[in-house]
Amino acid sequence: ETRTQAFNASGAYTGTSGRYEVSDEVTPYVGLVYDIVPDVSLYASYTEIFNPQNYRDKDNNLLAPVEGSNLEAGIKAQLFDGRAMATAAVFEAKQDNFAVRDMTQPESSLPDGNSAYIGI
């Protein structure tokens, strides 16, 4: 279920949107951890992204949900008998269909947004 609250640029509350719910969508997640030695582990995970939106197009139709994927891999180590932890990771997140402002219609959005993030 997605519920949003709106604020204008000066921070004033401008209202709460209606609810949009999707109950028949499954978003898979898989993860793997491999212990190299007792205090050092390699890990990897993959998940799909599904996020309903409350944004509407110029015809007042709800935009399709944001969809995408996230892939992450890294290493974790416990140091100093478990008193500290070190982590290094790389990830890639992709999203499609998120709303961007329709500059031709003041209160509407377009489903043109897509993004990809790669990080270390």
Intertermini distance: 31 Å
Strand count, sense and closure of the main sheet?
5 strands, antiparallel
- SSE pattern, N- to C-terminal: EEEEEEE
The tally of strands reads 7
- Given the helix and strand composition, which structural class is it? mainly beta
**Number of DSSP helical runs:** 0
Number of domains: 1
Shape: elongated
- Rg measurement, Å: 20 Å
What percentage of the residues does DSSP assign to strands (E)? over 45%
**Contiguous runs where pLDDT drops below 50 for at least 5 residues:** none
Strand order of the largest sheet: 3-4-5-6-7
Protein name: TonB-dependent receptor
Subcellular location: Cell outer membrane
Membrane topology: Multi-pass membrane protein
Organism: Xanthomonas perforans
Short structural description:
It is found in: Cell outer membrane. The protein starts with a strand and ends with a strand. It has no helices and 7 strands.
